[in-house]
Design goal:
Strand content: 5-15%
Number of strands: 12
Number of helices: 14
Helix content: 25-40%
Low-confidence stretches: 1-12
Radius of gyration: 21 Å
Number of domains: 2
Length: 400
């Protein structure tokens, strides 16, 4: 099948244009038959063939759908990649990447990752003889030694990490990976393509939960893979079609709509997060806050790396109280909704050890610093003063 050559969504080459221009226009030109400026939602499962096997570019929507195709073009563009693939969730995207591996393969991963990623590799893929070792990627020598003493087929990292917001030197890790002929996969969900582009730093594959910042409105579940290698792309495209974990046309359209305002939202997320970080630093100086985890923490090694490889600090902050009442703190807020996920326009608060990372055994969580007292904030785009006043309720609840 000659995919993408049938129903035409007028598409221009926006290479070299600014991020917001590409986010609005790339892959999203007017539909040529009607002139519709907004990409149509092609709600169809199958397509008429003029002769057996002869199509206008599409035969079945699991394989390709014009709305999803527009999304995939847009995803590739905003992540500065050659190819994009859309999936029904971030975990579906990571699962597709894992299917590049064979039985007996080993993955080297950062030890601070989303609980769902931990669950996939340690509780599902282990049944198929795919192994994983998790180490702290802050020490490049540890990575080098691991690759020298054992054979690995893939490196998987987040930067910043979830939930401790460790920042890893993607370019340096890429250099080590290439030296040992290992593919580097970077989960770029926390930064979004607006703030960071791992492909430019040497990563082979970038993965996102588009549920988060890319969609941006807490109303759609999705995942994405972006890359430059045509051979790997064809393999992943085959896996995508074979396993069928694709987003619906409507989900694709909703995600496309989110992409259009990504740059505007990320600016607001970053501004709010920095002001809330300053507020939390004041609480730390008063002895109410113990630790703060934030890529923009001045003077830290993480901040030095972040300044080199990203264009902002993002909207995520984690911190722990000088109190055992993190649960009470989280329940006292109104604007910060107590819930899982992140990256939406509304602010969220959660306790990773009791929510997103509960699947990790307690002793292992605590050894990594994910204690029951760790609080994670996804700072939204509300008025900063209102968010700070809301956090103040939590401090009053805990400390009086």
């Amino acid at each position: 099948m000659d995919e993408g050559k049938g129903i035409s969504l007028s598409h221009n080459d926006f290479k070299g244009k600014g991020f917001t221009t590409r986010a609005i226009h790339d892959g999203q030109g007017a539909e040529e038959h009607t002139g519709a400026v907004s990409i149509p939602v092609f709600l169809t499962s199958t397509y008429k063939q003029t002769s057996p096997g002869k199509t206008k570019g599409y035969d079945y929507s699991r394989t390709a759908n014009p709305t999803r195709e527009a999304l995939e073009k847009s995803l590739a563009s905003i992540e500065r990649g050659s190819y994009g693939l859309a999936f029904s969730s971030g975990m579906a995207a990571i699962t597709a990447i894992s299917m590049l591996l064979k039985s007996g393969s080993m993955v080297l991963s950062s030890d601070d990752v989303y609980g769902g990623t931990y669950r996939l590799f340690n509780m599902v893929l282990n049944n198929f003889n795919v192994g994983i070792k998790m180490v702290d990627f802050s020490n490049l020598q540890v990575i080098e030694k691991e690759l020298e003493k054992s054979k690995y087929d893939m490196i998987l990292i987040e930067s910043p990490t979830n939930p401790l917001l460790k920042v890893y030197d993607i370019a340096a890790i890429s250099g080590i990976a290439k030296k040992h002929n290992v593919k580097l996969v970077v989960d770029n969900t926390f930064m979004s393509p607006y703030l960071q582009n791992p492909l430019d730093l040497g990563a082979d594959i970038v993965v996102h939960s588009t549920t988060k910042y890319i969609g941006g409105h807490s109303d759609v579940i999705g995942g994405a893979i972006m890359l430059n290698d045509s051979v790997i792309y064809e393999k992943l495209k085959f896996i995508q079609n074979s396993t069928g974990a694709v987003p619906s046309p409507f989900d694709s359209w909703i995600t496309l709509r989110g992409i259009k305002t990504l740059s505007l939202r990320m600016k607001a997320h970053c501004e709010n997060a920095m002001q809330i970080f300053t507020y939390l630093m004041e609480k730390k100086e008063k002895g109410l806050v113990d630790k703060i985890h934030f890529p923009g923490y001045p003077g830290t090694e993480y901040n030095k790396i972040q300044s080199r490889q990203a264009r902002g600090n993002g909207g995520m902050i984690s911190f722990s109280l000088n109190s055992s009442k993190a649960r009470e703190f989280s329940e006292a807020l109104d604007l910060f909704t107590l819930g899982e996920s992140l990256g939406g326009v509304e602010s969220l608060i959660e306790i990773p050890a009791l929510m997103t990372h509960l699947v990790i055994p307690k002793a292992e969580r605590e050894a990594r610093g994910i204690t029951d007292g760790l609080i994670r904030l996804s700072v939204g785009i509300e008025e900063t003063e209102d968010l700070i006043n809301d956090l103040e309720k939590g401090f009053k609840k805990v400390f009086g």
